[in-house]
Amino acid sequence: MQFLNLGLSDETPISVKALVGQGTRSKHFKFSLPLDPEDHLEKRSHTRDIRICDGIAERLSAEGFSCEKAGRGKPRGAVLRVKFAGFTVTLMLDANRQPRYTKCNGLTWTNTLQRHPATPEEIAEGWARTRQTFENVLRESFEATSFEWTDD
Predict the structure, then answer these.
(1) Closest CA to 89 of 129, 50, 45
(2) What's the N-to-C CA distance of the chain in angstroms?
(3) Beta partners for 72?
(4) 8 Å CB contact between 45 and 78
């Protein structure tokens, strides 16, 4: 069983199987972005991943969400956390430059804080709000196309 430990001191590392087993929201997503004419980096780049996630964080913050700057994902990609009282929604993004567009793949999940856990209803409401705003931000601000969510 593999554990996801993102280094947050007040969260318990949990496995992917445990996420799904506890009804925690864990979803894959994918979308395409227009090419940035100033992006001449290689196909995979942490710089691109972090730049996209930081842009998403700025727009989510403008919508009233509590976000921190994106961090480097391991082994690749970038990680963005949206904080709520009692839980966080984590977005992991991997952006790959293609000849005509940037293809983005990602995973989201929720983590309940150990000291002050949120109720399942609070998590479901916060997750739904984050998901809808995340998708709106991508479509309106980033001109994302081919947006698709899939279950684990």
Answers:
(1) 129
(2) 16
(3) 78
(4) no
The pair of three-digit structure tokens given for residue 100, joined into one six-digit string = 């005509």
Cα separation, 6 vs 83, whole angstroms: 14
The pTM assigned to this predicted structure is 0.75
Look at residue 30 and give its three-state secondary structure: strand
- What letters, b where the CB count within 10 A reaches 16 and e where it falls short, cover 54-77? bebbebbeeeebebeebbebeeeb
Please give the pLDDT value at position 44: 65
Query: Does residue 22 surpass a pLDDT of 90?
Result: no
Q: Can the peptide bond before residue 120 be classed as cis, meaning omega within 30 degrees of 0?
A: no
Distance of CA 131 to the CA centre of its chain: 9
Q: Express each pLDDT in 78-126 by its tens digit.
A: 999 999 988 999 999 998 888 888 889 999 988 888 787 888 899 989 9
